[in-house]
Amino acid sequence: MEALAFYGIGDIRYEQKERPRLEKDDEVIIRVKYAGICGSDLSRYKKLGPLTPGNIFGHECSGVVEEAGSRVTNVQVGNRIAVCPQLKCGECEACKSGFFAACPNLLVIGAKEPGGFASYTKVPAENVLKLPDNVSFQEAALIEPSSVVLHGLFQTKLQPGKTVAVYGCGTIGLLACQWAKLFGAEKVVAIDIDSEKLQLAKELGADEIIKPEKSVSTYSKLMELTDDNGVDLAIEAAGSIQTSEEVFAAPKKGGEVLFLGIPYSDITLKRFYFERIVRQELTVRGSWNAVSAPFPGREFTTTLQFLKEGKLRTKPMISHYLPLKEGPNIFQKITSGKEKAMKVLFEVGK
Questions:
Q1: Cα distance between residue 282 and residue 254, in whole Å
Q2: Which of 306, 301, 305 has its CA nearest to residue 290?
Q3: Please, what's the b/e burial string for 108-127 (b: 16 or more CB within 10 A of its CB; e: otherwise)?
Q4: Contact, 39 vs 170, CB < 8 A?
Q5: Burial group, residue 21, by CB count within 10 angstroms (0-12, 13-18, 19+)
Q6: Regarding the domain delimited by 156-286, which CATH topology (the fold level of the hierarchy) does it fall under?
Q7: Nearest-angstrom CA–CA distance, 218 and 246
Q8: How many helices (H) and strands (E) does the chain have?
Q9: What burial letters (b/e) apply to 80-89, b meaning 16+ CB within 10 Å?
Q10: DSSP labels, 169-212
Q11: Strand partners for 200
Q12: Residue 238's closest CA among 43, 89, 69, 68?
């Protein structure tokens, strides 16, 4: 089968790999239809390298059940499905309590186990969700990143009438803008350095946009848009050093900060930003992964429901549809700045 294997920093190869085989009676083999490049995939490609050199990369995918083990009851061969890529151990105290995100052995496919950038992949049956007839494979490939956003928002006090600022308008940030409005936020402010991303944020629900400038601080612009109050919830979705600091200036007294992005460098807080945490009595939350109890969690089932009802829009975020063989080229182009992309989907098997 065709696959993209990750060997080292900047080294992804299009190869032929052996098709997976059922080894346990609770597993399913999936014929992958679409698989998306995650921002974390780009960071690992450029900065960190693979956990297992030569492993099949990728974790955001959808497809069709090709084979099912003898004890599988939730899906049948031929079912259209989305994949929850998180693999929990099920044995630790965190797993036994339903706090799967804290599992010390939690992994996603594409890390140490073969991932979704391939003709076929294999996961436990509990990791797949049947798709409603009106939800496409393309939309389903973005269910996991949507669930990442929901996992964080479910921990906050966000409710109708609140105000939200979203720092970073990549896939996670755009989904955060949408979900904030679906939660009933009165005003959502999207912040990014890319004009095209900001325009897409407006199309997907942001009420106001801010493009940082050297002459006027983002903080002053945000205060102007919120009558000098700040917002109830500030979301860091860029994973940059700068926004990981600036996000603390956005909330009002008693407000919240939610970190969805992951910076890959040390963060140093200027006194102004640290004092905002203390003087504003902020609640600062980190959010990791996308799963909860009952596994895979309400993050995935809620996303499916809102896709089915047409309330969540993921297709406008897809900028590229490519065959797997273009994988090495597109990774190099995006990380080198030679090509701009929002969400890249591989059309597998075409």
A1: 5
A2: 301
A3: bbbbebbbbbbbbbbbbbbb
A4: yes
A5: exposed
A6: Rossmann fold (3.40.50)
A7: 9
A8: 11, 18
A9: bbbbbbbbbe
A10: -SHHHHHHHHHHHHTT-SEEEEE-S-HHHHHHHHHTT-SEEE--
A11: none
A12: 43
Distance CA 340, CA 116 (A): 23
Asked if pLDDT for residue 202 goes beyond 70, the answer is yes
Instruction: Write out the two tokens for 99.
Output: 């706090």
The two beta strands, 107-108 and 86-87, are antiparallel
What is the DSSP pairing of strand 120-124 with strand 187-191?
A: unpaired
Question: What tens digit of pLDDT does each residue of 88-120 get?
Answer: 999 999 999 999 999 999 999 999 999 999 999
**Class for domain 2-145+290-347, per CATH?**
alpha beta
Please determine, for residue 192, whether its predicted confidence score (pLDDT) is greater than 80: yes
pLDDT tens for residues 239-254?
999 999 999 999 999 9
pLDDT value at position 349? 67
pLDDT the model gives residue 166: 98
CB within 8 Å of 45: residues ≥ 6 apart: 6, 9, 10, 12, 331, 335
pLDDT at 212 over 70: yes
Model pTM greater than 0.90?
Answer: yes
Q: Where are the chain's structural domains? A: 2-145+290-347, 156-286
Which amino acid, residue 281?
E
Residues paired with 68 in a beta bridge: 28
Query: Mean pLDDT, to the nearest integer, of 41-56?
Result: 95
d(CA 176, CA 231): 15
